[in-house]
Amino acid sequence: MSDATLKIFRGTREIGATVDYRVPIAPGMVVLDALHYVQSHLAPDLAVRWNCKAGKCGSCSAEVNGRPRLTCKTRMDTFPQDKPITILPMKSFPVIKDLVTDVSWNYKVNKKIPPFQPRAGVEWRMYQEDIDRVQEFRKCIECFLCQNVCHVLRDHDKQEQFGGPRFFVRVAGLEMHPLDGLQRTGLLKTELGIGLCNITKCCTEVCPEDIHITDNAIIPLKERVVDDFYDPLLGLVRKIRNAKEPAK
Amino acid sequence: MNGKYETHEHDVLVIGAGGAGLRAAIEALAQGASVGVVCKSLLGKAHTVMAEGGIAAAMANVDEADDWRAHFRDTIRGGKFLNNWRMAQIHAQESSERVRELEQWGALFDRTKDGRILQRAFGGHTFKRLCHVGDRTGLEMIRTLQDRGVQMGFDVYMECAITRLLKDGDRLAGAFGYWRENGRFVVFKAKSVVLATGGIGKAWPITSNSWEYTGDGMALAYDAGAELMDMEFVQFHPTGMVWPPGVQGILVTEAVRGEGGILRNKTGERFMERYDPKRMELSTRDVVARAIYTEVREGRGTEHGGAYLDISQKPAEYVKRKLPSMYHQFLELADVDITKGPMEVGPTCHYMMGGVKVEADTAASTVPGLFAAGEVAAGLHGANRLGGNSLSDLLVFGRRAGLVAAQHAKATVAPSLDPGQIDSAERAMLAPFERKEGESPYALHSDLQENMQKLVGIFRTEEDLRQALTKIEELKERSQRMSVSGSRMFNPGWHLGRDLESMLTVVEAVTRSALARQESRGAHSRIDYPDLDLSWGKQNNVIARKNERMELRQVPIPDMPEDLQVLLTEEKGSAA
Ligand SMILES: Cc1cc2nc3c(=O)[nH]c(=O)nc-3n(C[C@H](O)[C@H](O)[C@H](O)COP(=O)(O)OP(=O)(O)OC[C@H]3O[C@@H](n4cnc5c(N)ncnc54)[C@H](O)[C@@H]3O)c2cc1C
Ligand code: SF4
Ligand code: SF4
Ligand code: FES
């Protein structure tokens, strides 16, 4: 069996560098398997997050050879064997240790979003065709890879003004829920700063759940914001049709 | 109390943020209690997120003949009559309401043509009963509960692991733990504690479970003086991935069979005809797991030691829509397109039927102030759990645990914490750093897993089980000499060292119970006692700590009231 070389970031926010590890390759092995090998044989204190090992929990995000990925779904045989594979923590979040980053900011943003609130007196009937598009948004596993690549956060550090693609996806899921009665366009415009997104689509490219973040979530939400704030008449029409009340 | 430790105080402390913990927390909040939720991973990453196939509730949206009585009967039959009948009754009666509640909190289940929640067939369920969202039901459930709980305002302590329950005399007083991030210690003071920590799958090498499943809750409860029950019943799910090696054990949802998947051996024979001609692929998990295992052992296994599971006779679009994550999982991890050819599958350690012994109506353990719900608790599933009955269990008994924990908190005064217990918990955590040149926790873990796979697996014998106990004693001694390197900052080696202690307690309980039960029933198959034994069908194995030793006794199952017995008679003959 052949070996691969992993260059793994070791260290903290203050100090750190990549360290080389040799790992034997088994058929079908994924990057997370290689990291586990390093933990159990070479560096027992290597900090890595993971849970499901099946692309369902969104814990194991990292940057592998410069690409943000779920390490549990990244096969080792997609890389040339004779070159080292570099594994770095997500860049947009402060490093805690090794590959583990501080993603608590996301939980704070999430808290600002008013949850589902059914319209008064709704009948609990929904049709599959009406919820298909919402179910797409609800596939999100909160891997935060989209947050990690979005230049508004990654290069411009606008954490205070901008919610990021993950939370546009969440708001889209609520706004387009057939029975929801709240309106969150004010929140989108101000606190979540949706206007800062210039539709580069980098978020969509990295989403492991293949959510069409830009086309299906962000653009329709931007349109709603425009309707409600710049074309009040159109906004009104939609409001009457959907009977939405503004979020507090 | 010395001011040495960061301390938080709540009426109700919930340990675990899966479905059971979150549902408990929501209910306790609704009662006006102050609630803290502690979890080892980030919020939203608990095991519940991985659940695929669905949640069982007799809503009768698809099969009109279904009702709670049928769900009750199926659950007891599946559990081979060892279930706590009262739990099975409450579960069957309340699960539909709990599912509806999820919908009202924003969950979006797949729909029937007339706009109601769609239900699918699953093993052991007489009717189409599993409410689902494709094959990502758990994600929908955990996100719905998480968003609701956050909005209602519980305090979440993420990436924080509890290592000791603290007591004030006989009653529970709180918990001691460490922050994974920086290794600092933290103390929680609470009038009620709800355990919702899940199972123990990581004690076996081939498992669908994550690193979190090290039996912490069961060991914590045992150490605090609570009783454990039915520990011999470990569920091996019949269909885990077998190839390539790195993915071995990852779950292939039962929904594949629910949607019409067919099992074949290497000769192409649909072998379930020989094991359960009536229910075939949709037989209960214990039966299907033993069937696959037997096919492989007798030389009819596939290339990589499993069976073929084939759904490719269904239209490709249908498979992609109903089983999207299975489609991607096989395509990306195993280079298999399941719309074109069969998957290779084999048994994987999946679920713990046993756990903390609780009162059916209140989820109370035998220690005042300590409650347990979800996979960590015992009773509902008896000797074998039906698919889909866990997610409903989490909601039904999570809610009850939260409710009673909040009521209990209202009715009692604040406990006091004992600095001696806290200091001893701290010393235990620091010990492996002080030992030098000891064994690595990873080596011990891998020996423990090998031991369990070889000696306490699907088929068991007295000789194997005795050998396993000797091994466990050795491993316990070795763990006293284990050492860890590095600092206290996010150090998985150190964390595993502590998790090992929980695993060692729990596997001892599993092995002792398995040795005692001289019969085969549900998930417990003894080669030396291959038949059901009527007298064993009337008692549960219960384990408790007596004078620092593990003591096992048999406790009779309470008599089932006649009105419930009537519901079973019709089918009783086929219990085996
Ligand atoms: C792949 C897979 C698919 C499944 N599919 C289904 C299905 O379709 N239908 C079904 O009904 N069941 C299914 N199950 C079973 C079901 O998902 C689980 O039994 C259930 O989710 C367990 O929920 P829980 O709330 O008890 O625990 P979990 O969701 O596992 O949560 C446990 C929590 O406890 C925390 N914890 C543990 N120890 C500590 C500690 N020491 N300190 C602090 N916190 C701690 C963890 O961090 C976690 O937050 C599936 C299981 C798996 C593995
Ligand atoms: S499309 Fe918008 S949200 Fe997505 S990466 Fe580009 S700027 Fe960020
Ligand atoms: S939207 Fe996609 S990339 Fe972003 S957090 Fe969710 S799953 Fe990850
Ligand atoms: S470990 Fe869950 S997504 Fe990778």
What sequence of helices (H) and strands (E) makes up the elements of chain A? EEHEEEEEHHHHHEHHHHE
Q: Tell me the domain tally of chain A.
A: 2
Query: Average pLDDT of chain A, to the nearest integer?
Result: 93
- Report the sheet with the most strands of chain A, covering strand number, pairing sense and barrel closure: 5 strands, mixed
Radius of gyration of chain B: 23 Å
**In what order do the strands lie side by side in the largest sheet of chain A?**
2-1-5-3-4
CATH class descriptor name of the largest domain in chain A: Mainly Alpha
Question: In the CATH classification, which architecture of the largest domain in chain B applies?
Answer: 3-Layer(bba) Sandwich
- The stretches of 5 or more residues of chain A where confidence is low (pLDDT under 50) are none
CATH architecture of the largest domain in chain A: Orthogonal Bundle
CATH fold field value of the largest domain in chain B: FAD/NAD(P)-binding domain
Radius of gyration of chain A from CA coordinates: 21 Å
Give the chain pair forming the largest contact, with residue counts: A-B, 55 and 64 residues
The CATH topology annotation of the largest domain in chain A reads as Fumarate Reductase Iron-sulfur Protein, Chain B, domain 2
Strand content of chain A: 15-25%
Look at the structure and give the CATH class of the largest domain in chain B: Alpha Beta
- The percentage helix of chain B is 25-40%
What is the helix tally of chain A?
10
- The helicity of chain A comes to 25-40%
